[in-house]
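Raw record, unedited: ICE1 protein
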Amino acid sequence: GVGTMMPGETPPPPAGTVAAGGACANCGVLQQNINEYVAALIALKQKMIDGDRLLTEYQQKCTDILWFSICISALRCQVENMLQKILPLEKCQEELGSLKAELEEKKVCL
């Protein structure tokens, strides 16, 4: 008991004091951990929202690119068609040019 204590020895604290002090310290740490965890969750949620937004923008760009490539293909077809129509005309022009030259020569001879 208390009577048989040696000099200089401190009596043990009443039951519950250390536990309560330790628990309070643990509560503080736990609260801090929870706060950090919540902050991390909020940051993660924000990243997910940002990610969704970026994904939507990316999909929109993909759709735009697809649309542009369809338009370009259509234009390319039109250009091909026009070229096919122009080529015979160029040949005609060449023939006309040579005919004209021949006529000029004949005129000179006459």
